[in-house]
Amino acid sequence: MKHVGTTxxxxxxxxxxxxxxxxSDSGMEIxxxxxxxxxxxxxxxxxxxxxxxxxxxxxxxxxxxxxIRKDGRLTPSTWEEAFELIGREFSRIRQQHGGQAIGVVGxxxxxxxxxxxxxxxxxxxxxxxxxxxxxxxxxxxxxxxLTGKPDLTASMRDVFNAPAILLIGNDPTNQHPLVAWxxxxxxxxxxxxxxxxxxEAIKLERQAISTTQVPVGAEGTLAAFLAGDDSRQTHWLARxxxxxxxxxxxxxxxx
Length: 255
Prior knowledge:
The protein is of the alpha/beta class.
């Protein structure tokens, strides 16, 4: 069996993983995933998706070659033919309508280096600034808020060592398992104080000393209020947990 180092694509955490690959009747197949040398930001950690969620690579419906539409039907083609068509169409559109007529959509499953190359290709070669990607949050607003404030970002090490963590509108256990693992370890080993603000119940509430339930989509309003925007002041239904995760919950209102 051959071991191939790569980056897990299941979320944006970017965990390093090692895939065990062996030859089969249909070619090469992935048989397991781990992190053999315990390097990368995740050390020896890999969530269940990273360890076992690789069957999509051999799925029967996975596209394994380019398809070009001919006479109204998608027809299998070679990579050379596909790249030639793409280059020809890009050149035609740019010459006739300018680079701003082209838009580029990236992926949240690529590495930072791949995303950098994509935006570089868009700006330099295609001459367009129309660049976007799949996202589940308002990243432009986040980027604007962090501009010129590098100390406001946090690394995985910071998450593990922080004395207190305020988690707003997120479910790391499902969306970012490595972040959830660092939070749980911080609470368990360093007795960090975890505060959760969410519209729905999440698993990390078990480790939180206080949870606040807000209406769906109101997380940003609460964040602005906590930052000092009194115009956003409103009533929130809070479910506070006192002491251990098994303590009795109570309800309170915050004005």
